[in-house]
């Protein structure tokens, strides 16, 4: 009770010295001792000072009231200085005075009293032990927890209902997508649902070509932004190039269209993106549905009509197929199926075309040169006599050729370089659309359903009777490298990649194409053509026997770089790629450098060990001995690995070569 000097001291003294004695309370609820005022006055600081004379009654215990001095307990003077509560707590020299009935009574915080509060104020002592310090019983604890739980739930409800209101930066993250609510003992994170992007009604389309850097940049830009677009590759759809010229006035690509309106090329796209006007232009040009005069998307299953001419000898072949006695015959104690004798064919030609025997033999040689017919053993030209021949479609290897679909392609054969170029462009388009950015993984399921792959399969039939002898050495190298990689993709789709050793050997030898009238398996291409008819790893025989016509196409010298341009469909093989005849050598060096700078080699200087891909081991005859191999590899390593390897080779010590395990799983 604070009384200032400006207050009515007389009234306060009168109330304090009234007839009714003021009770003094101790620590506990005990009988009230009585006291009389012996003196009172005003102190210098303006507070009222009252002096009581207190007599202790019998049986009273005031252990809770501190004794100010050593006077007899029967009579004491207690000095009660009515001061501020802080001073009372600090001094702890006086007993607590019960407030007057006319003054407001203090109230304890809810839940902190074990029993209902009485009129007598009970002073709480400082705790001395754990047991005595427990001032709350279990009902009070339950009430406290319930109150806190209710306030906690109310806080969550208020926070969730006012997420759009501004909040304190310390409690809520300033991110527009995520809101954080920090409560006592719990952190609530509320993710705001992003607003759906405005749907575009129109169509984005662009004309492109295979292996075009600008077209690749446009394609990646649309993919990164999640935009649906239609790509029209004029290398895959040659007739669409005329449409491109009609719309833009040139054959330059990329040519981007928003509906029927031309946006431009890569330069125009970058300009709009950098200026921030691309979104507005897209909203303006794609707000309406695609009109009929916009570039039409390619349609699956329809081939472009091409101006193809039938071979001049097709009429002769049709007559021979009908008139010749094709049957099984015995030759050198062996049964030869579906064949005819050379003399029989000469007789048919003489009687049907009314020509001389010499002319008939000349026609037979032309048919053999254009691969309509072949000798049953494959090592003889056409002759008039008892030698046996058969048509290409009756050859025993035809059932294993996956580019043969019932009949021989009777159209006039196109140049092998032109057919190889078209195959390269279509396969490059497939890689750009259905492979990962690093070309390490292919989506074979999507490739098998694509229009590009369907057109490739149809195009592969033009290989039946092409003349491969007209190719130059670089053209031959690029042709067979590209053919191998395309055949592997076709084989994985049609028969799947084998798992066991025996199945793998069958996979690489049984999946064949008929090219130029001869069968070519994957093993024939690698070991027979590209490696100059060398034995395959762990094989005892060469791919081509003596007198095989395919030996004429074998490269005269083995180039070790070919092993880094061939992808056999596994995860440990080099990256799949296709080569151009003009730059095949430089492209092979780039492929080898990329392969070795990945994880194909590692150098452990402390162990003096070099870990290599097993491809080097399998074809060690193409690379040389161990030191020659390491010195050759240095040319294709980065500076760090090349320095380590040169250090090992230069100090004269022994260098161990360890070959890693090969991952035969499919690169899908």
Descriptive account of the structure:
By secondary structure, the protein is of the alpha+beta class. The chain starts with 8 loop residues before the first helix and ends in a 9-residue tail after the last strand.
Strand line-up across the major sheet: 9-8-10-11
Query: What integer value in Å does the Rg equal?
Result: 50 Å
Tell me, briefly, the overall form.
elongated
Rounded mean pLDDT is 79
Low-confidence stretches: 1-9, 12-34, 52-93, 114-136, 166-175
> Tally the helices: what do you get?
22
Largest sheet properties:
4 strands, mixed
Give the structure's gist in a few sentences.
This protein is α+β, with helices and mostly antiparallel strands and 668 residues long.
SSE topology sketch:
Elements: H1 9-16, E1 24-25, E2 35-42, E3 48-55, E4 75-81, H2 85-91, E5 96-97, H3 130-133, H4 138-161, E6 178-183, E7 186-191, E8 204-208, H5 213-224, E9 229-233, H6 240-248, E10 255-258, E11 261-264, H7 266-275, H8 278-285, H9 314-323, E12 327-331, E13 334-341, H10 342-353, H11 357-369, E14 373-375, E15 388-391, H12 416-434, H13 444-448, H14 451-459, H15 473-494, H16 501-510, E16 512-515, E17 518-521, H17 522-530, H18 584-596, E18 601-604, E19 609-612, H19 614-618, H20 620-623, H21 626-634, H22 639-650, E20 656-659
Parallel strand pairs: 8-9, 19-20
Antiparallel strand pairs: 1-5, 2-3, 3-4, 6-7, 8-10, 10-11, 12-13, 13-15, 14-15, 16-17, 18-19
Helix pairs in contact: 9-10, 10-11, 12-14, 12-15, 15-17, 21-22
GO biological process, one term: intracellular signal transduction
Protein name: DEP domain-containing protein
InterPro entries: DEP_dom (IPR000591), DUF547 (IPR006869), Glutaredoxin (IPR002109), Thioredoxin-like_sf (IPR036249), WH-like_DNA-bd_sf (IPR036388), WH_DNA-bd_sf (IPR036390)
